[in-house]
Amino acid sequence: MTVLMLISHQTFAADMADAMRSEGKIWVVVAVISTIMLGLLIYLITIDKKITTVEKEIDSQKKQ
Question: Average pLDDT for residues 14-29, to the nearest whole number?
Fold first, then answer.
């Protein structure tokens, strides 16, 4: 039963991907995914900078 479900999902996904490619909509999907990934990267860099600042403050307080 599970195997049949997996096969049907793969077939549906392949058909959908083929349809998007033929209509040129695949580039919209690529753009959306790229935007989301870029946003996550910027968010992680921002969080890293904030954590680094807090770590430096904690280190300077420990030295005093």
Answer: 81
